[in-house]
Every structure is written in structure tokens, then in C-alpha cells.
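Researcher: Let's run the pair from yesterday's discussion. Sequence first, then C-alpha cells, for each.
Model: Starting with the first of the pair.
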Amino acid sequence: MDSGDTHDMEQAKSLSRSAFVMGYTGAVGKELVNELNKTKTFKKVILIGRRVVPLDVGPEFEQRVIDFEKLDEHKDAFKDLDAGFCCLGSYRAKVGVEGFLRTDRDYVLMSAQIAKDQGCDHFSIVSTMGSNKDSYFLYPKIKGEVEDNLSKMNFDRLSIYRPGFLITDHREEKRTLEKIVKVLMTPIIYFGPTLMSIPVETVAKAMVNNVVKPFAIKEIYENKAIHQMAKEC
């Protein structure tokens, strides 16, 4: 960590800002909570989800259970929080197309708008490599549409992360196709680790390192840039 990175982190801590995390029980979300707990970047962190889960974190963390189908009834969960991290995502093979659209598009955009209205000025989201609202394929198309709609919400700062294949051994559900892809990609992961894949821990570190950086209106980080950002602190 160089002196500039140290200054950014210490300055961020001195501002006593607050944040929320959505999708904190998922692969990236879990690592993000671990990283936030380790760095103590925020004075308060609200973890927004469907259920309470066991966590070994500091007193600045609070779990808030909400019904995403009734988001308007849970606006207070987002009230006066400076920054938001969205790691929401579903496994399409498990929830189907409708479930995927509801979670990865509708819940994300509705939550983001409520957060913006409640005072959030910096919104960070985990999207995907190749996201494109004009794609013929559903997954990158929806991710691209979400990015486009978030851009139109006019957050003071919007950070979009487009990681490649996420490497993790801590999925709650079995993902057979994901395991097959991981095996097929082993040579690429070994010889070109920043090309198409990234450990979830690296994504989390990059998000925390970046949130303390000087102001930018909109920024998009592709897979290789996320790897680099994670090394900066």
C-alpha cells in the first residue's frame, strides 16, 4: 500500500460515512462483508437481505430483513446511507427466467432508486463481463439494461464492475454447469489469470479499495482493471 492509498483509506474513515450491502449472502457479497469488516471503512453498514445469517463481524454491522416484493414498505432500511453495494444475483438454472429477471433486474433497479431517493450518493454494482443491452443473449442483455438504467438515475457516483468467471469454492447451492466451466477454463485461469476469470475475494477488495478513491461520476471496471484495483491497497 503506497502513501496515496493509505491517505485515501484514512480520509474515508475520518468522514464517518455509512453504507449498505445487498446480496451479502452470495459469493461476492460474503467476501465484501469480510473486507469491509477488516478495513473498517464505514462507521455503519446495513446488510439488506431476505433473512438473518450468522456473521462474525463488528458492531457497526446490522442485518435488516426485507421483502423485496414490498420494497416500498422498507424504505427506512436505505435511509441516510451514503454508499451502496449491490451484489444481488440469481442462478438462472434454479429460479428460471422470470426469477432471474425479477432478482437481477427489478429488485436491483427498484432498490437503487429507493436508495437514491433516501440519500445514497455512491452506488456500486457487480455486473458481468460482456454486458450489453443490445445483446441477443438474455444474461448480458439484462445486465446491460440494468447498467443503462442505473446511469439514468444520476447518482453522484456510479461504479460498475464487470468481472469475468467468478472463482469460488463457497457456493450455497450446487452449480453443475459452473463446475464444468471451471474445469474447462483451468488452463486459461492458470496462464492468463486476469483475462476471463477472477476470485470473488479480488472483486471484494477492488470494490472497497475503490470506494475510498477520489470522486468520479461514472466508472466501469472490466475484469483486468478489477484485478489491478484489488492490488492498490
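Model: Moving on to the second of the pair.
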Amino acid sequence: MMETVLSAASSAVAIRPPVASSSLSSSSSSSAPALCGSASLSSSMALSTPFLGSPSSFITRPLAEILRDMNKRVPDKVLKVKNDNGVSLKYIPWYHANRMLSFYAPGWSGEIRSITFAADSSTVSVVYRVTIRGSDGEAWRESSGTASVSDTQFGDPVQKAEGMAFRRACARFGLGLYLYHEEEVL
């Protein structure tokens, strides 16, 4: 059913190496996620301090601690709600998931593994991989997201599918996982 696969190797998203404080300037803007050192996660999810240490200094915690922290409940004020066929669904916007990863798992990286259009060009699917690094190794999770090509309500369909895949890959590490089964009665 799926036919066209685009190479997405150049679309990789990675944490850039830290910059020395002397090279920081107000005119340098980048879409790369910010690293933090001793910053605290405020209620607005803003990172308050850029990371200025050596590249190896942000790998300080074991994976088990990082995963424990990523399984914590997300503050309700960062959640968004969308209506899907009459059902209200809570979700974490991709930019909040990005900031939470940078806080809980500094040095994480993400990449688009594939972009696939359906044979009839009605949908596009993206596979995204998130890798987190700890003092005792690294772990990665992949997930997919699919969007209708005709649905441009919230932007480009490829970006929509990428955001969905990114959030799902984060959920496989525990970030907001409870949102997928919050209404279930066990």
C-alpha cells in the first residue's frame, strides 16, 4: 500500500555541541533545542540557563533515573486538548515534549527515519527515533505518525505527522504515556 519513500537523512535533529560563553550573542538564533545545566523546570516549561559545560558533563545520570523522571505526570497547564470525532483528547505539544526531554535527558537526539506517502497520495507517514543518553549507556525508541495530505488545518501534513511520531516516541520512554490510557478502567 505504501510506495514512495523519501530519504530523510538530512532531516536529522541533534543537539548541537555547547558553545563557550564568549561566543554567545543575542543575534544568534537557532531552532536547535537548548541545553540546560542547573536550570529548573518552571511551570511555563522555560529553561532558564544555557548549558555551558563540556560535552561529557551533561551525561551524568543513569538511564533508570532519566526514565523514572520521564514517567512523571506532565503539568496540566502544558497540555492541549483537541476534538477528534466528538472525543476530547489531551496531548503534549511537540515543543513542550522537546523542552522536557532537554530538561530530563540533556544530550538527547532525534531523527526522522523515513517519510512515506501512500500509493494514492492520501496520507503521509513519518517514523521518528528519539535517543537518550545516560551515564550507563543509551536507549532509543521509534514511533510513527500519519496525517492526511488534505488536512492542512494545523500546518503542513509532513510536519503534523512528524510531531505525532515525535510525541509517540517520547511516550515510549514514558513522557505523557498515561495520557494514552487515562480514561481506561482496569
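Researcher: Give me one sentence on the second I can quote.
Model: The chain is about 20% helix and 25% strand.
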